[in-house]
Design brief:
216 residues; alpha/beta; TIM Barrel; eight-stranded parallel sheet; 33% helix; globular; binds D-xylitol-5-phosphate; binds zinc ion
Amino acid sequence: MSHLIAPSLLAADFTNLQKDCEMLNESQADWFHIDVMDGVFVPNISFGMPVIKAIKKHSKKTMDVHLMIVDPDRYIKTFKEVGADILTVHYEACTHLHRTLQAIKAEGMLAGVALNPHTSVDLLKDTIQDIDLVCLMSVNPGFGGQSFIENTYQKVRELKSLIQSKNASTKIEIDGGVNSSNAPLLKEAGADVLVAGSFVFKSENPTQTIADLKSI
Ligand code: DX5
Ligand code: ZN
């Protein structure tokens, strides 16, 4: 299967979200990537339930919700209610990751785990079969528009080999600083899903930028 493109709405025009949602619907984007930040797990606050609900109303695609929040278990049901199809929690924010993954699946969503740049993929060896998506952070989470961390390629290769060794069907997503220069190398290393915020929304023609990322 070809790789998937998940534009991050963190870089969208918040004064006209409907327009950007419609652009994504008409584009070759596969997923809507939605970044939720709580000002505790990361030093920034993005948006919450009412905004996600509004995006859902105008989205015709999979809602990929990335939680950068502490103790995400508190809100699993609520994120399902506002429209999440995939719910990704941070490894670093979960004391009982296995339980959290089961709770996400029990709500009928796919379960994702995000790893900060300093977190080793080896830590997922006992849970990888329970994870639908691993989101490798290629920047320190909290802000869009940061530069890509080069060590990510190595992490993608390590994660790919862990997934294969366990016969798992986990997808690998890369999030942060993705652009047309690193995208081909990420795909070659084994990435399945590319998240791109600024590179898409700050470009002159976002629809074309998505098509370009899709065709690498
Ligand atoms: C960072 C977020 C990313 C961010 C990506 O904490 O998780 O999804 O929006 O933005 P760019 O592509 O601009 O790095
Ligand atoms: Zn994200």
